[in-house]
Amino acid sequence: MRDFICSYQGFSVIGLSLDIIGVFFLFFYALPLSGASYAVSEEYLRKKPFRKVMSFIGLILLIIGFALQLISSILSYCQA
After folding, report:
1. Residues 6+ away with beta carbon under 8 Å from 31
2. Which of the four pLDDT bands, split at 50, 70 and 90, describes residue 64?
3. Taking the model in full, what pTM does it have?
């Protein structure tokens, strides 16, 4: 198992998994609206800090996932 995780295929699988989780976070906790000129509900304003943190976590997961996929591509190229 350790050999797979440390291989370029393992980096690719982990990266894709993080990307999928990050996309779900962004889908459910969309990026916060800035400068909205329309009325928003009180519930939205109450949950806004939580939504902001969750969308930030989603973006971080996407960035880490893409970085792992890049590392996977570089490792597979070097091993060939």
Report:
1. 55
2. very high
3. 0.77
